[in-house]
């Protein structure tokens, strides 16, 4: 029990740090906004603690199937940290911020080719933006997209080479997929494959759809100002992280479907042998 509370508390602290990190590293928030972010960080930490301290999860999927959630958290944490340091370097330069900015600039230019997701983010520029603002968008998008790609590749390797999620023991379907209702929608195997394919396809499309939707919305409502550092950090992080998270979830669901299919095949073969 003590170990579980300690682990849940550690996760809660890490979530709070993630939520408040851009505010701490990049000054510029109004006092009221800082208080709101601190409140949101506290709420996120409490929800995380309650989720992990209990015997059974309520909303978090793959809780007992590491390193799925750890990879996603690390990707988002690293993205927010790197972007925060780059934006912080604009007013408070340091050796680390300059190195990250140079790396992001190289990556941004390398990924800024026609019809690429990075190019679509750059096309969100407005006439009021300076060349430095556009360069910052390109730099942030390039390095954030690379982190998301690296995370997906690492998860693919974990699934294929490290036999996730059964390397450490049996996979508990109902604990790791608490939101999946087995009583609706027909065969579980069919639904897992369908949901996995939908998540994967949506993950591939989102990096292209999000900038397009933002561009269309800017013609109807006041556009999001990507020249504001904190807005740029959270917008680019969401743009890079959400598609990667969906693709990872899709791959995970299809992997679970594969395990169920293999188990059914073995059960049917054994039943046939017994019938003979």
UniProtKB/TrEMBL annotation:
This is Membrane protein. Keywords: Membrane, Transmembrane, Transmembrane helix. It comes from the Bacteria. It comes from Salipiger mucosus DSM 16094. The chain crosses the membrane at residues 12-30, 36-53, 73-91, 143-162, 198-218, 238-257.
């Amino acid at each position: 029990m003590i170990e579980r509370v300690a682990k849940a508390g550690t996760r809660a602290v890490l979530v709070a740090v993630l939520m408040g990190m851009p505010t701490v590293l990049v000054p510029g928030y109004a006092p009221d906004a800082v208080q709101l972010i601190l409140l949101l960080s506290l709420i996120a930490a409490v929800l995380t603690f309650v989720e992990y301290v209990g015997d059974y999860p309520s909303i978090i999927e793959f809780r007992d199937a590491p390193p799925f959630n750890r990879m996603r958290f690390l990707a988002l944490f690293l993205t927010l940290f790197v972007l925060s340091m780059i934006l912080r370097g604009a007013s408070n330069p340091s050796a680390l911020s300059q190195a990250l900015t140079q790396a992001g600039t190289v990556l941004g230019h390398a990924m800024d080719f026609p019809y690429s997701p990075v190019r679509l983010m750059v096309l969100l520029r407005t006439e009021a933006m300076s060349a430095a603002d556009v360069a910052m968008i390109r730099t942030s998008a390039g390095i954030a997209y690379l982190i998301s790609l690296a995370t997906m590749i690492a998860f693919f390797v974990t699934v294929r080479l490290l036999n996730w999620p059964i390397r450490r023991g049996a996979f508990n379907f109902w604990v790791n997929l608490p939101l999946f209702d087995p009583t609706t929608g027909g065969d579980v195997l069919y639904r897992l494959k369908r949901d996995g394919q939908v998540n994967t396809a949506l993950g591939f499309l989102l990096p292209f759809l999000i900038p397009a939707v933002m561009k269309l919305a800017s013609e109807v409502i006041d556009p999001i100002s990507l020249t504001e550092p904190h807005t740029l950090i959270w917008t680019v992080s969401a743009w890079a992280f959400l598609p990667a998270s969906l693709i990872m979830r899709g791959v995970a669901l299809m992997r679970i479907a594969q395990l169920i299919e293999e188990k059914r095949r073995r059960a049917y073969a054994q039943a046939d042998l017994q019938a003979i």
